[in-house]
Structure formats: C-alpha cells, structure tokens
Predict the structure of Glucose-1-phosphate cytidylyltransferase.
Amino acid sequence: MKVVLFCGGYGMRMRNGTASDVPKPMQMVGPRPLIWHVMRYYAHFGHTEFILCLGYGAHHIKDFFLNYEETTSNDFVLRGGKAELLSTDISDWSITFVQTGIESAIGERLRRVRHHLDGDEMFLANYADVLTDAPLPDIIERFSTSDAGASMMVVPPQSSFHCVEMDEGGMVGSITAVSEMPLWENGGYFVLRQEIFDHIPENGDLVADGCGELAKRGRLLAYPYRGFWKPTDTVKERAALDEAYARGDRPWALWENGREVARTA
C-alpha cells in the first residue's frame, strides 16, 4: 500500500534560530531525521512505496535521500577500501518526490499527488513528524473490513493543561487534567479511500474538510490508541525523543529485533 507523507510545512514551533530553513520532518532523532523513522515504521510492515509531498525546505529532504549513507545505521565490512553492507534500510524503497507548494494546506498537498494514487483503492497518509508503535496491520484490517471512507488514529490529549469548570458567578466547581478527560485528538496516522478526494476543496484541509465531511456522513472511522505516541511539535519534544534514542529507549523502532505490538481491544 502506498504511503503519502506530508513534509512541506514550515514547522514554526521547531525553530530555535540555528537551522530555521530545515523542515520539521528533517529534525534529527539519533543519527536519522524524523521522516526516516516514520518511513522505517511503515517499511517494517511491508509498505515501501512512498510519496513525499514537498514544500518548504524541500532541498533538505531531497539531499538526504540522494546522498543517503547506509553505513550510518547498518553494520558493514570494510574490504579493499569499500564498505560491504550486512543489511540495508532503503534498497527496496520507492520514493516519489513531488513539490506540492510552499503555502499549500495539507488537503491541497494530497490533491496534488492524486495522479500518483490512480488505481489504489486504499492508501496510507501521515504528517511525517509523529512517532508511534501502533499495530499498523490491525489499523488497516479494521478499516478495510468497514465501509468507512477514511480512518484516523486518535490518541488521548498530550497537553499538561487543566480544564476548569465554573458557574456563572465565577466559582470553580472542578479542575481536571486534560489527559483525564474523555477526549481524543488526531494522531496523524490515516488510512484513506479514494472517496476522500470528493470532500477536499481546492486548498482545503484533510482533517477539517475531508475528514470533517466524512464524519458528518457517518463514514469516518477512529482507531483509539493509548500506547506509545509522541509528537514533535516543539524543540523540547524533539529533544526528549533524541535523548530517549540515545539511551536505547525506542518504543517506535519496531524494526529493531523484530518487535511487534499487541493489537488493541
């Protein structure tokens, strides 16, 4: 199944004044950028046909793959001055690079690669900046056996804020952590059918327009997941993942030692 990755946004909250022209999916976690970790996750489950929706900082992404160095994350033997790989990451990957505009909304980026999805009843999509260990085969199976037009993984709120309930006089009745409320947020992992294109207007949004319209029609399926899921919306969040990688705490790296995650109920 093809995987569409949205990697053309500015990623404003990731900027720290040192590499402001580097798009968020190219921020490093260990020796590889975020986008590589996301792609490696999909490849682990056999999905190796990628369509990259490029925009801001596209040259960074192109250069990374055009000059890809396999020895960074694979064992090898140096013989006669040449590296002989003992394993490989991307030799069986197909990567299509498409410039989808600097200012384009996510939905418009998807529209602009539609011709690369002709003949594909279903396909996968991702923001390319969120890591998880969710059981992808289960997500796909639940969607494929439904009649929904799209599926999105949903996760508990990650915010540390508290919600305050008060009366008309301003007296507080309760204070509840957002994470403890019966709420879910978009997890950024999608399984889509061609029908999604019928509900995304020009320069429209994938979630607000496409998924929103499907929800109104009762054709949007949610996949609730309470396992490992980490966004990288801020420098702090990205740094935390980098530190976790350094100490060997990598729940998302299912390809290491062939690990799998149990299906949800």
User: Anything to note?
Assistant: Helices lie at 34-44, 58-66, 106-111, 136-144, 206-216, 235-246. The chain has one domain: 2-156+184-258. The radius of gyration is 20 Å.
